[in-house]
Specification:
The complex is a heterodimer of chains A (185) and B (133).
Chain A lengths: L2 H9 L3 H23 L2 H17 L10 H23 L4 H8 L13 H11 L2 H12 L4 H8 L3 H30 L1
Chain B lengths: L5 H4 L9 H57 L58
Classes of the chains: A mainly alpha (185), B mainly alpha (133).
């Protein structure tokens, strides 16, 4: 069914329409939030909050852009707020605790060792204002103009941030790989 | 180094099985909370309306009785101002004594160089100098 029509039905309070929308987007939103925060449990909670907001704020949706952009705008705003909150209280994710304790970890599919792990680590170390545009571009495939609208920033700023984020990521990844190679030799 | 392809390199995580159920559960909780909040607000309003009406009435009565007194008090001349003695206001008197408080600080505020300014006036303690207009 057309996503715009689903939103129209959600406006009327149709929970089945919300279920259909969730079926389409839940994995993408959870995945995006997981890579934005590096914490699976929190990512799931915020993804649920995203769809709750879709349900209660469906009347605020204006069909000027795709539904996906609207959903990811809500998810990005939640990720931004979470990043701010974390800066204040300096939270540690369950995954980090699990890895420190050497336990089995939480019930999610963890990244495989090597490049992926280094990349995830480098990504988690990026500031949120670099990480979010990069993930929206490279992971979710939104255009720079769409990301600018979603994050409420000029297109030039978004272009610069994506470029800078890639540069930082590449540099950190190179040094991580170099460190591993030196350690292995 | 080659261009990074995050989509291929990053692991993909999925939503848990009970994702939708938990969302609907939370939606129901929020709806209930909103309804309760509305009912509590209406309840408070009903219970408090007599109290609010009384408070409004007290405010109104206090305003009616106290405001005229307030205006009466502040409608009087300032305490610092000393009016001319009555003898100078008598019909026979051809001159009127004026006592003016003059503040020159503004007049000299724009002077770029700070200088001591002397204001010379005739001072006579025994005779009131008359100013004729």
């Amino acid at each position: 069914m057309d996503e715009q029509a689903l939103i129209e039905r959600i406006k009327q309070g149709d929970e089945m329409a919300l279920a259909s929308l969730m079926k389409i987007y839940k994995d993408r939103v959870v995945n995006f939030l997981y890579h934005s925060l590096g914490d699976y449990e929190r990512a799931v909670e915020l993804a649920q909050e995203t769809f709750i907001r879709v349900y209660f704020r469906a009347h605020q949706y204006r069909p000027v852009g795709p539904v996906s952009a609207w959903i990811f705008t809500i998810a990005s705003n939640l990720a931004k707020s979470e990043a701010k909150r974390r800066r204040k209280v300096n939270l540690v994710s369950l995954e980090e605790v699990a890895s420190e304790l050497g336990g089995e970890g939480v019930s999610y599919d963890p990244p495989t060792a090597g490049l992926s792990r280094s990349l995830e680590q480098a990504l988690n170390e990026l500031p949120a204002h670099y990480r979010l545009p990069l993930l929206l571009k490279d992971l979710e495939g939104f255009s720079q103009e769409e990301i600018a609208r979603m994050l409420g920033r000029p297109v030039g700023t978004i272009k610069a941030r994506i470029s800078r984020a890639r540069h930082i990521l590449r540099r950190r990844l190179e040094s991580a790989l170099r460190g591993k190679n030196d350690g292995g030799a | 180094m080659e261009e990074l392809n995050l989509k291929d390199l990053l692991s993909r995580v999925k939503a848990p099985e009970d994702f939708e159920e938990r969302v609907f559960e939370k939606i129901r909780d929020r709806k209930r909370d909103r309804r309760n909040y509305l009912l509590v607000s209406i309840g408070i309003w009903r219970r408090q309306k007599i109290l609010l009406a009384t408070a409004f009435l007290i405010f109104l009565v206090a305003g009616i009785f106290l405001l005229p007194q307030f205006f009466k008090k502040y409608g009087e001349p300032e305490a610092g101002f000393s009016p001319a003695p009555a003898k100078f206001l008598s019909a026979e008197s051809s001159s009127l004594s004026l006592i003016e408080f003059v503040d020159f600080t503004r007049d000299f505020a724009d002077i770029p160089e700070k200088k001591v300014v002397y204001i010379l006036e005739t001072v006579n303690e025994s005779v009131v100098s008359e100013v004729k207009y």
